Amino acid sequence: xxxxxxxxEEARDQIEEMGKADILVGIPxxxxxxSIEHVVRAVQYGLAKYFPKFRSVVMNSDGGSTDKTREIxxxxxxxxxxx
Length: 83
Description:
Strand order of the largest sheet: 1-2
Structural class: alpha+beta
Shape: flat
Largest sheet: 2 strands, parallel
Radius of gyration: 13 Å
């Protein structure tokens, strides 16, 4: 059986392009436009402060938000082209 993924092809390509990571932090969200910027910044700050020598990835797993959650994550992210 072939490996299957629920990720969009574009997301899979971006992950493959990144290569390996030492730390992956997943942030689940759904209509969290009022708080998501703080959460993403806190995670990025914590990774930079406590794990500066490790290659880390922050990934937002959005449940289909109808507000601006996803856009805010992209604007807040160090790597805005990643979803």
